[in-house]
Amino acid sequence: MAGSSKRAATPPDALDAFEREVAAAEPLERLMVVRGDEEYFARRAQEVVTNRAKALDYEILVRDGTDPDAKLDDVLGELATPPMFAPRQLFVLRNWDANMRTQGKNLPPLVAALLAFCARDQPDRAVLVRATSMRADHKIAKTATVNLAVRKLYDSPPPWKPDPMASELVQWVRRRARELEVDVAPRDALYIAAATGNDLGAIDAQLERVRTGTGLLRDSVAWQATGTPWDVADKLVTADAAKGIDAVVALFAGGMTGKDGSRVLDPTALSTILLSSLSKTVRQGLAIAEARAAGETAERAFELGGATGRALDTWRPRMDARKHPAQWQRMFDAVSELERASRSTGAGVGVDHFVALALRWERQRGRSRPAQKVRP
Fold it and tell me: What's phi and psi for 169, nearest 5 deg?
């Protein structure tokens, strides 16, 4: 699946082309690669390959690098050894990214084994590699005869067409609804995307609820958009307590998506990540406010605080809402207090602590005493 036109295709279109190519394969291509950070599309691509393998009577061996029982030496041995009994064999290798990173001219053992696998005359053996962080110019990606990139969908519309209905995510909701034969109007697709966030598996579940529901669509759709701890931290420091509280409650209720695509629901993990993000953000605000108080220009203050490039669009309204160093110092002290409480209990802090923090910061808005020279 090489070629500029295919690289430019949207992820759903690329997946459709991948499915057509795999469905026509007899036997399967020797090396297939699915790379990218959208777990939903990667999982569907794997299903396409394994379903075709079953239809062609392949033995399927799934080797997951996150499995504590999975050993690299075992995988290398299996790739190098033809099967004794199965006439056809498919390996599915996923979560081995760390073992395929190349440095200099020396090839990692797994990369060398895959290249050797492809070089041998064994048309009835195939490998599907799933990699989250593999680049298009990686040796394995360039060697693969079937190569699919599965990035996350854009949940904002393109700048040349600012209609929210034009975002890739909303367009995909409409497309997926048609595939599942669910009657969803364009505005309803926008509502489902807003209610769910950029979680395609969860959108599938929402569409199933709509399909089996008997009332209004909005009665069937559960509002569960959670975002990430970094998004929540951003809302907490924008000086809008209501939005910050809503974001905190949604995060702890719905969790976040981990690097492996799984749902992280552990409150201790969520609070630790959120505290870390809050601490970094408030440190930046304090540094910018102190630079301005010391007589620096706005642009120089932003630069000293590490807010450059596109980040300026976020930081300007933040600093308009809280101009004085004393405000940011109080915020930093509050976050430091929560961090100490988290370390002392060993169990993190809960949603109530962050709600109280948002209300406390809201009450403190507008206060402006001279900044204390207490630096973190």
Answer: -65, -45
Integer-rounded Cα radius of gyration of the chain? 25
Q: What is the per-residue pLDDT across 266-314, written as a single tens digit (0 to 9) for each?
A: 888 888 888 988 998 999 999 999 999 999 998 899 999 888 876 777 7
How far does CA 6 lie from the centroid of its chain? Answer: 23
200 in a structural domain: yes
- Are 68 and 97 in contact by the 8 Å Cβ rule? The answer is no
Contact 27, 249 (CB under 8 A): no
Q: Please tell me the distance from the alpha carbon of residue 98 to that of residue 151, in angstroms, as a whole number.
A: 19
In 3-state terms, what secondary structure has residue 29? Answer: coil
3-state secondary structure of 60: strand
For 97-220, list the strands marked E by DSSP: 125-131, 146-149
CB 92 within 8 A of CB 62: yes
Both structure tokens of 326: 């004393």
Residue 244, helix vs strand vs coil:
helix
CATH code of 196's domain: 1.10.8
Where among 96, 117, 149 does a domain terminate? 149
Same-domain status, 209 and 121: no
